[in-house]
Amino acid sequence: MNGFLGRYEKRLDDKGRLSLPVPLRRAAGDGPLVLLQYQAPALSLFPGTAWKKIEDRLKEYRRSDRGADMYVRRITSFSVEVTPDKLGRFVIPGWLQEAASLEDEVLVVGSLDRIEIWNPGLFDVHIEDGAPDASEFMHKIFG
Fold this sequence. Notes:
The strands form two sheets. This protein has a six-stranded antiparallel β-sheet. It is globular. By secondary structure, it is an alpha+beta fold. Strand 7 and strand 8 form a beta hairpin. It has six helices and eight strands, in the order ββαββααββαββαα. The chain has a single domain, classed as Transcriptional regulator MraZ domain (Chemotaxis protein chec), CATH 3.40.1550.
């Protein structure tokens, strides 16, 4: 199976490190990941192959639209490359922890081509408020 699925409750350690859950770690493969906040309040974590596609779109957007620099700059300045250690841990920089309102407890959510990192309370509010009636969407996806 490919893609990131599931919901995992984790803790940041005293150094600001997050340990990726084993199923997500396996799906991400080896190598660096790109961590960023492009859509508040969550952080998103992309494996290299998925990030490369985004990077290519950003470059094309910047080439084709004179006003794109500001948007590209915002995305890249809120991004950092991280490489998990042998235990799947990586540091979430303090400025990204603050941007996502992360404290000790975090929620790690698989979201197909990316991993999302949430403050658990904000995730619950987002899910409750985000789709008051999801039946039409569910029908389009599942039939």
